[in-house]
Amino acid sequence: IMLHSTLALSLLLIAVSSNLAMAIKKEKRAPQTLSRGWGDEITWVQTYEEGLYQAKKSNKPLMVIHHLEDCQYCQALKKTFAENEEIQEMAQNNFIMLNLMHETTDKNLSPDGQYVPRIMFVDPSLTVRADITGRYSNRLYAYEPQDIPFLIENMKKALRLIQTEL
């Protein structure tokens, strides 16, 4: 019996130490590549399809950011987006988040053209919210760094619309 409990204890210690090692490893994780600089604390989905699935499942709106690496407007917006605590917190807690460097096959995501940066919202019923627009009439879903307060309002609007339409 003594041998049995010693064995069980050693196995337990091995399990605990390997879990500890994994926890330490997790703590030191490299910045998430899916964030591409838009916010490493945010959980990002990899594809539009995954985003739609998660939005429906979690009843949270999906926020889709179209951008390109070599676009100076995207870089400027990304910087202010990543530095804004209110946006980062809302993005992490209330939205399914996706940033894409390529177009999707869903034409609803480019109602007025395939420009970047472009931010659109899709609600959990999988409706693209063409009614949540930015400040520019020629590029309805474009945002510039100075439009961050406007983007915050639109994020809140996307959340409100879900509440009222359920």
UniProtKB/TrEMBL annotation:
A Pfam family recorded for this sequence: Thioredoxin_7
UniProt KW keywords: Signal
Gene Ontology CC annotation, any one: endoplasmic reticulum
Molecular function per GO: dystroglycan binding
InterPro entries with a match to the protein in the record: AGR/TXD, Thioredoxin-like_sf
Signal peptide interval: 1-23
Family named by the database record: Belongs to the AGR family.
PANTHER family: ANTERIOR GRADIENT PROTEIN 3, ANTERIOR GRADIENT PROTEIN-RELATED
Protein's name in the database: AGR3 protein
